[in-house]
Amino acid sequence: MQLRYSFRLYPNPVQQAALARAFGCARVVFNDAVRAREEAREAGRPFPTAGQLSRSLITEAKRTTGRSWLAEVSAVVLQQSLRDAETAYRNFFASLKDTRKGPKLGAPRFKSRKDHRQSVRFTANARWKITDAGRLDLPKIGAVQVKWSRTLPTTPSSVAVIKDAAGRFFASFVIDTDPTADQARMPQTENTIGIDLGLTHFAVLSDGTKIDSPRFLRRAEKKLKKAQRELSRKQKGSKNRAKARLKVARAHAKVADARREFHHQLSTKLISENQGIAVEDLSVAGLARTRLAKSVHDAGWTSFVNMLEYKTERYGRTFIKIDRFAPTSQVCSTCGVKDGPKPLSVREWTCTACGTIHDRDHNAAINIETAAGLAVTACRAPVRPEPVLAQREETGSHGFPTGNRAA
User: Fold this and answer.
1) How much is the pTM?
2) How far, rounded to the nearest angstrom, does the alpha carbon of residue 40 sit from its chain's CA centroid?
3) 132 is catalytic
4) Each residue of 25-67: pLDDT tens digit?
5) Which residues, 6 or more positions from 81, have their beta carbon under 8 angstroms from its beta carbon?
6) Which of these is catalytic: 32, 84, 298, 361?
7) Known catalytic residue at 196
8) pLDDT tens by residue, 323-376
């Protein structure tokens, strides 16, 4: 599978100016491609092909007075910007036809030079390289200093240079990993776990472990409010306002980095200790429209679940999402009797059938593990679920079942 390895870049002032030119040229080519397609649509003409756009917006544009500065950056950067526009339109049309997974996407819009996040991509054709001194040598930019936090497992196929809202530069390498080597790195285990995500505790595991919620945003809220208040008092367009905006962006970036590091460490720990992991498919978008919105966003459940999903695939583990409407908080994990819905204020309850006293979150985690088919015996010894034949209506099994699928 393909993964991204990101490293911090430290370009000097000359290299920062060269990167700014690359960001600007890529943005202009993208906007020209969107404009050409919109003009064709309004005139009732067929959309121009990628080859026609490349010839008119890059090759011929470099010979004109108004676009001669496009020659100051690598041609690969401009070609990749055209491909980004093609991908954006392809995703938009797939959303219209309901053939794209995930949320629906709108039509591509023009990029603004005022956007504080910029990026360009270099493929192998750009002949970029990592020097013997450990620097990233980019065409028409130079050898940029890199802070290597780990070793690249294989030779990258491409690299994207990203400038975030906090003014930091990153190099994002695309790596093709070896599944066999990745799975060999993980210890052998037969343990399984169910995870109940929440706000009082970030996660409660089916073995009774409770992981406290760090609440990074809540802890930094006082500092963020002060920085935002200082920004609002600065005159628009002034240099002091730009400095204040950068201060706010850096404060938010610090919170986001801490949350991401917490998610990475916890997800890796859970995957290394368990062969099977089950979570509930929460409606985060719906919860984010309630009075708990700030706490929901601060927890970052979606990011954490996405990490679990791709890491289980990478390391050969089992990952299962159960239906969000499963009554995990209503069913007794001991006798299986459904005891009815309970308000969030009820953290402990007693089963009316067997008299067992349940911790709400721990009971839900056990039910999540059971509903996913990762059943356990009374002594907590794991039992692997039996393969279940794929149903007719499942994806990839039209006509006849194509294989087995775990329950």
Assistant:
1) 0.84
2) 34
3) no
4) 999 999 999 999 999 999 999 999 999 999 999 999 999 999 9
5) 25, 26, 27, 29, 30, 33, 120
6) 361
7) yes
8) 888 888 888 888 888 888 888 888 888 888 888 888 889 999 999 999 888 754
